Amino acid sequence: MKTYKFKTNINCGNCVRAVTPHLNKLEGVQEWKVDTDNPEKVLEVKADAADAETIRETVKKAGFEAEQL
């Protein structure tokens, strides 16, 4: 399993709720969380099949930005 980290603009509970269905249905993602207390709003994704680009595109489809750290 690999852990990916992204700087995002997911900055509140409503934003997390908006991105949740997109990340939850992404195949290969085991676990994810957003640290909204961190100034860079870091999204951490643990995946065994999804790659960084797929995760970034999924976040983008949900209406948010994600830049891999």
Automatic annotation (TrEMBL):
Short name of any one Pfam family annotated for the protein: HMA
Q: Which GO terms describe its molecular function?
A: metal ion binding
UniProt cross-references to InterPro entries, sorted A to Z? HMA_dom, HMA_dom_sf
Record-given protein name: Heavy-metal-associated domain-containing protein
List residues of the HMA domain: 1-67
Alphabetized Gene3D superfamilies for the sequence: 3.30.70.100
PROSITE patterns recorded for this chain? HMA_2
